[in-house]
Amino acid sequence: MRFSVSRQVAAPLFAFSFASPVLPALADPVPDTVLVTASRTPQRADEVIPDTTIITNEEIARAGAGSVADVLRRQRGIEIVRNGGPGASTSVFLRGANSNQVVVLIDGVRIGSSTTGAAAWNAIPLSSIDHIEIVYGPLSALYGADAIGGVVQIFTKKSQGTPAFSASAGAGTYGSRQYDAGVHGATGGDHSLSYALSAAHEDADGFSSTRPGSSSYNKDDDGYGRNSVNGRLALQLAPGHEVGAQFLKSRLGAQYDSGASSYDTHNEQDIDSYAVFLNDQIMPNWRSSLQAARSNDRLGSFTSAAASGASQIDTRQNEYTWQHTLDLNGDTLQVLFGHRKEEVLSSSGTALNRSRITNSVAAAYDLRRGSHLLDLSLRRDHSVYGGKTTGAAGYGYEFSKDLRATASVGTSFRAPTYNELYFPGYGLETNKPEQGRNAELGVRWQVAGAALQANYYRNRLTDMIVSVNPCPSRTGSCAYNVNHAMLEGLTMSAETRMLGLDLRASADLQDPRDETTGKQLARRSRRHASLAASYAVRQFELGTELQASGSRFDDAGNANRLGGYGLLNLYTTWRFTPDWSLLLRLDNALDKRYELARNYNTAERSWFAALRYGIR
């Protein structure tokens, strides 16, 4: 029987939102958390209308040797697929949306490949990250193309006043090793200079990425190595006026299987992001932010010693944004101008060696009137695929300081990738952008010591680009605008503190389906959930994480089912001096055998230990 969110959501949403759970009257949640991504400007968390979550520095520190994707998969609304270990190709699904339907930013700089449309999650160094903000739902009205499922913004480590040094070293199962070090600080005075610089190396011997049933199976271990460095420098020219630069460089070498060949088949992936910025307080109520940024995504694949066994695809994005933010008696008006140029250079032929320019203008207005909150945004993007106008409106009403309900609507689009437009024998230059139309209801309730939230969403996608055979305009297969899809679901989350125990739980009931075929979208489950608990006593913190996912299908035709799974992770941190700490972590403690992609291995029970100095 088909699971339909629309028929089953009303009762759980009502019960979750307005029932009276028995919860202890403990300390209130930490106030005044500030988020940036949901509105492109700093905003108190209790004034943000879109569904948003933040992954803190502490959560990232507890992840050990895990990847960015491993940290994300513990959050509500997120699933991942990986073709092997942490260095392997990785996809991140946000509310059922594809990886290429999610915008990924590093310190405000957009990253990703113009040929695939997706970010190289496996190349992003976890040790460089301070915190992560995730905004769910369509944000094309603020960020342009591809923000159908949401936006993930990664913030690297920044300067924090007094000069300080930090470092860590760790090792674990599969020959994993990890080292990182960093320094940050700031000078005082009217012309203060802040700085931050960190570097990291990690590698592992790994395990075989494939299983015997795969046509690419090779029983050898597939390891990886990653080197990264990132930094930021900012100078205060005068009070309210700041100029600076930031960068991140990461290089990943990852082995993979391509059959019984003795050649060391591997990928070499580089991601870089650079930006220079100028922030000015032009008037007491008028701020200006000007940024010039560049990001590179380079992928080299090597399958044999012959020259024909090597291929290279490099993509580059140059982006210029000028944002004006005006405070109008408590309301906020933003006006944004953007220019982005994408370039591709491929060794596979000249068909992909092209560039395209997107020019954008956007405006947003945030209104606060007593118990009423209103956000409006509108954007116009123009590129080789024509002009696209997107908009969003969100309304929130505070019944009390503890209970708030929200409703929002928004449109979005995804630009066709270079592969979908120009790849020989596959792309069609007539392909149009995919389009999304989302409606959402949410409720948030904070009671002493606890916070509960529920969001129901219904995101209908049209002109979906899929591979079809036969192709309407030529023989063989091709990418073509033909499908419709529905991303519908209910996300629930809760946090509380009880008898010194911090508890967090989330559950997703969703129905990501292809409306053209009636099938469940590949590699997305209808139910997944997580539970985390931690307890601190003296210098020790003890924690456990439980992740559960229902069954999925590995293919669009729903012929190959992947079983559901549950994972138990355990960790402890011992801070034996104010500056020194020891992390011990055990992942997949019950040694669950499961697949995220058919015939690809996942890690068995594995441990990791790290010694750390200073503030992470």
UniProtKB/TrEMBL annotation:
Start and end residues of each stretch annotated as Disordered: 205-225
Q: Where is the composition biased (Polar residues)?
A: 207-217
Boundaries of every TonB-dependent receptor plug domain copy: 51-151
Where is this protein localized, as stated in its record? Cell outer membrane
Pfam families reported in the protein's UniProt record: Plug, TonB_dep_Rec_b-barrel
**Similarity comment:** Belongs to the TonB-dependent receptor family.
- Protein name according to UniProt: TonB-dependent receptor
**What is the source species?**
Massilia norwichensis
Q: What is the lineage of its organism?
A: Bacteria, Pseudomonadati, Pseudomonadota, Betaproteobacteria, Burkholderiales
